[in-house]
Design brief:
- Two copies of one chain form a homodimer.
- The first copy, chain A, is an alpha/beta fold.
- The first copy, chain A, folds into two domains: 170 residues, Medium-chain alcohol dehydrogenases, catalytic domain (Quinone Oxidoreductase, Chain A, domain 1), CATH 3.90.180; 145 residues, NAD(P)-binding Rossmann-like Domain (Rossmann fold), CATH 3.40.50.
- Chain A contains eleven helices and 20 strands.
- In chain A, the strands form four sheets. In chain A, strands 3, 5, 6, 10, 11, 19 and 20 form a seven-stranded mixed beta sheet that branches. In chain A, strands 14-13-12-15-16-18 form a six-stranded parallel beta sheet. A three-stranded antiparallel beta sheet of chain A has the order 2-1-4, with no helix packed on it.
- In chain A, helix 4 links the parallel strand 12 and strand 13.
- In chain A, 52% of the residues are buried.
- At the A-B interface, helix 3, helix 7, strand 16, strand 17 and helix 8 of A face helix 3, helix 7, strand 16, strand 17 and helix 8 of B.
- Chains A, B: One of its GO terms (biological process) is non-phosphorylated glucose catabolic process.
- Chains A, B: Belongs to the zinc-containing alcohol dehydrogenase family. Glucose 1-dehydrogenase subfamily.
- Chains A, B: Pfam families: ADH_N, Glu_dehyd_C.
- Chains A, B: It catalyses: D-glucose + NAD(+) = D-glucono-1,5-lactone + NADH + H(+); D-glucose + NADP(+) = D-glucono-1,5-lactone + NADPH + H(+).
- Chains A, B: Catalyzes the NAD(P)(+)-dependent oxidation of D-glucose to D-gluconate via gluconolactone. Can utilize both NAD(+) and NADP(+) as electron acceptor. Is involved in the degradation of glucose through a modified Entner-Doudoroff pathway.
């Protein structure tokens, strides 16, 4: 079968041929429909994040997938059922985090991540997975199901951020998303119904499809070249929630300055080892006197995938169509992994329903 | 009546004489029993925190008080009832934060603080207060009632910290308190029943009464001169909760390094304007990949005072006695506000029950 993988010592993904996998007991076989590409895939290709499966000379990419159950193999799934796979897997025996259904809370070195760290991903015509890690989704997600995994990360991050504000009457007036990539835009769409005013920060010139999408959602585009994060309260307004999806280390700290009294910043980016000066005393004091919080969040569990389905189902139809700007066949792997200024979300299509 | 106040232009507190206040409608008159001294009082004396009441040439100190209702003045309170006053007051008309019973969540510039910022405190033979800001407490608190206000700040801080960890199954194995002052020790006593192992960080040599108290509580003393906060995981263990009560700005950031996976740091200190270098990228990444959180917290509301009563009631009798090391008459104001190495909590006693 066809698969897209990076090989040891290589610096770009290739279309390879490998045997179709046989499901082990408890696994189902899934025929892949579509797999999304995100920033983590590029980091895996570059070798800056994750790692190859033990003993393998290649790693199949992809962790944002939707597919159809080809062979339930005795599991509770049904042939023809549309499913989205979760990402984390136990490294051997299931740990307490997996047993309680919270693999997202496991230490990173106590889990594998399909397509990212120590396990093959989903960019192949077929993949297998324990049935318990395949989330059945409605038939309407045959094309937009690739958005469920990234949106599940937002569901988890917001669940934790909201929990941190649950001990008092929190006002959700204004929210700011840092980053206008696919995850930022998905999050912005999620926040539209929960905040009176929403903002999304990027550093692109008009005309730009992400700015069009931000404004079509009813949000305000903030150009970080004109208005750095710390200046947002003065130029726009202080924020009750800030969602960081840039991976720019300074944003974690500038977020504190842009939060309103009792606000929360939720961090999802994975920056490098930058060191820099901070006004540490002032930031510490702002956290305390303003009852502010910073909450880090990674990955998601099955309930977040289910919540992501509900969130995406409630969005207008045009949103998924405008977000997924580029769809490629597996053979066009070079094009799919190249940069283009008017792209938002790129998808590899292996098959259709 | 006698009062302890700082006068404009002066740099130390003095015993003064001022008229006994008359309660306004809705206010009760309280006969003060005891008032505790804490770090904030010293900052008010030095002029580095808070400010004088508008139009006043002096500020009566004190925000940790216990007293007896002398004149209920038509309110629901009863004469002879033991009460503890809360600290924040509306600057004029009650704002939404006061109306909903959450003055602790108000912006600092939208409230007065008795004894700290813009309003006289409780270090006087009598004080008045709206009855709704006087918390009735059991008779057993006639001497230890001064600990209720500081413990209420811990109740609020931990409520917010625990809320931030409520979206998953959080494990409470180990907790570290930064700071062995009265607030740190009160918090340590509170954490004893909730964590398997507790630690308290200070920088004092043995023999020392705070180290004795830490060990009598069953906790481990961590000397920050030997083990800086960031080294705590390697020397002891990573922490599920860290409670910062030092006001040392670097501790807010070092806390991230000392937290275990899924841990939370709760910040209460108010440092100055220190600037310094941080390994910002690594700290940002640790927050994200470990689902870690930092939660700032200030002040408390009436339910936290009530919770503090319950917490203190459950502690062994020796604890309050060992924590309150020094009790002075108002005339001994100079001694009360001077430093002494074997002091933990200092109290001014105006009267007894």
């Amino acid at each position: 079968m066809k698969a897209i993988a990076v090989e040891r010592g290589d610096s770009r993904p290739r279309l390879i041929d490998k045997p179709r996998p046989d499901p082990d007991p408890g696994d189902a076989l899934v025929r892949t429909l579509r797999v999304g590409i995100d920033g983590t895939d590029f980091e895996v290709v570059e070798g800056t994040h994750g790692g190859f499966p033990a003993g393998s000379d290649h790693q199949v990419l992809g962790h944002e997938a939707v597919g159809v159950v080809e062979d339930p193999n005795g599991t509770d799934l049904e042939a023809g059922q549309l499913v989205v796979p979760t990402v984390r897997r136990p490294p051997g025996d299931a740990t307490e985090y997996f047993r309680r259904g919270e693999p997202d809370m496991a230490p990173p070195d106590e889990c594998l991540e399909r397509g990212i760290d120590g396990a093959h991903g989903y960019m192949a015509e077929y993949f297998t997975s324990p049935a318990g890690f395949l989330v059945p989704v409605p038939d309407a997600f045959a094309t937009t199901g690739v958005l469920i995994e990234p949106m599940s990360n937002t569901e988890k991050a917001l669940e934790h951020a909201y929990a941190s504000r649950s001990a008092f009457e929190w006002q959700r007036d204004a929210a700011l998303v840092l980053g206008n990539g696919p995850l930022g835009l998905l999050t912005l769409s999620r926040l539209q119904s929960e905040f009176d005013r929403t903002y999304c920060l990027g550093r692109r010139d008009r005309p730009d499809p992400t700015i069009d999408l931000i404004e079509r959602l009813g949000a305000t585009y903030v150009d970080s070249r004109e208005t750095p994060v710390a200046d947002v309260p003065a130029v726009y307004e202080p924020m009750d929630l800030i969602y960081e999806a840039t991976g720019y280390a300074r944003h974690a700290f500038e977020t504190i300055d842009a939060l309103d009294q009792n606000g929360v910043g939720v961090l999802l980016g994975l920056p490098g080892d930058d060191e820099f000066d901070v006004a540490g005393g002032r930031l510490h004091r702002k956290l305390v006197l303003g009852n502010r919080a910073l909450v880090g969040s990674v990955n998601s569990h099955i309930e977040h995938f289910e919540a992501a389905c509900e969130t995406l189902s409630a969005l207008p139809d045009w949103f998924g169509d405008e977000l997924i700007t580029d769809t490629f066949e597996p053979a066009a792997v070079d094009d799919a992994f190249s940069a283009a200024p008017d792209r938002i979300k790129t998808v590899i299509e292996f098959d259709s329903r």
